[in-house]
Amino acid sequence: MRSHSGGRSPTGAMDRKNRYDLGNDGILKLSFALAFPTAVAQAVMVLYAIIDRMYIGHIRPDGDLALAGVGVAAPITTLISSFAVLIGLGAAPVMAMRAGHGEKRIAENVVSNAFWLLAAISAIITPVSYLTRNGMLMAFGASGNTIGYASSYLGIYVLGTPFAIFSAGLNYFLINQGQSRRAMAAVLSGAMCNILLDPLFIFVFDMGVDGAAAATVISQALQTVLTVVFLRSESCMVRLRMVRPEKMARTSLTTIRFGLSPFIIIATDSVLMVLLNTMLQKYGGGGSGDMLITAGTIIQSYHLLVMNPLGGITGGCQGLISYNYGAGNTARVKKAILCTQLWATLYTCVMFILTFTATEAFVHLFTPDDAVASYTAGYLRIFEMMIIPLSFQYQNVDSLTALGQIRFSLPISLFRKAVFLTALLTLPAAFGAGASFLAEPVCDLVSAMVSTTLLWTNIDRILGKRQSEGLKV
Known about the structure:
Elements: H1 27-57, H2 63-100, H3 104-139, H4 147-159, H5 161-175, H6 180-204, H7 209-231, H8 248-284, H9 288-316, H10 318-327, H11 330-355, H12 359-364, H13 370-383, H14 387-402, H15 406-431, H16 439-469
Helix pairs in contact: 1-2, 1-6, 1-7, 1-9, 1-11, 2-3, 2-4, 2-5, 2-8, 2-9, 2-10, 3-4, 3-5, 3-8, 4-7, 5-6, 5-7, 6-7, 8-9, 8-14, 8-15, 9-11, 9-13, 9-14, 10-11, 10-14, 11-14, 14-15, 14-16, 15-16
């Protein structure tokens, strides 16, 4: 890597196989090299949830009810992971900016502080989540038929909260210093562990949903260990050093300010998933509510396959944007934004085609019931109609966050949620429970138009201010 003065970084020659030169490599190839493994890593992370649900859906005799129970627990597990995003995606762009500005010691202090913040959050969330899980599950749409499955799964999962938070939160620090292949390797190792343990625990040991949760916790623990090992290796330009954090209050405030927008995106996703389950249960009526939640759980699983790799593409290039913004290479910043949008759009085009050609095959992975599979496939196509515009929303928010423009990224994130909420509250009341699935395409289209307009009417002024006033983090 090059420092902001243009000289070769002292660590620039080390381990080029695992790190890219964010300040000098070609933008198109570099953005792909960062986006592709990060997208793969995020797709693999989805396998934690999807593989669990695939096996759970085939538990006899009540696989559909067990799947609905895990679906009710999903918003809580998503909410837990959002705290990893708050710290990881909050601190990692700051680390990249400082590294691009030639301030390696400050960058390492950012990583160290983030580690201790993740530890503190884990210590708080774990007991609170465990003790309040049943009340939350009933409030979030569980029924008498599904509460047992939901409580069993969540009870074991939340005991592994530290691993869930550390594995996700620390991975961003590898990605944002150009070590996306190592980040992918850590995630792949955890996913392969989960794939092997799920059938063993669920069916061979007859542990049911408890086995699915235990397999996930063990896999996240493995990923955590590998990520820490990679971050502490000599080949990392910015290493994780187990030292007493410095200027904790100031650094923490900066981290939270940067991470607030992606945190709100994911945290409110949890709230909206809860509301979606509630609407399906309310307007579905009788036994249809549980069946619709089963369909919703499968649809959410597919949607994760869309969103997580998309977030991997846009998030994987955040370090490229932040580093060059910190170095003052504003022309490279704009090129990086455009190239990342190219990869994000191509990815969502592929997923759009798959949505309308392979939906039934995907749904049947979760349920052998042809009736459930048939109406789930129809609702899934509705839910994913606007995933191509969604790529613009993701890239716009992540680019603005990478530039430290929280005053823009946060409002457009909240705007998207507000549109979703409005549609979710009004459409099923007017057209029935199935109309709940229309809320997603409505908010995807509207928010994409608004965020794209906001980014490209302000980008030149943002970059010009960086050139005239210097780096301000």
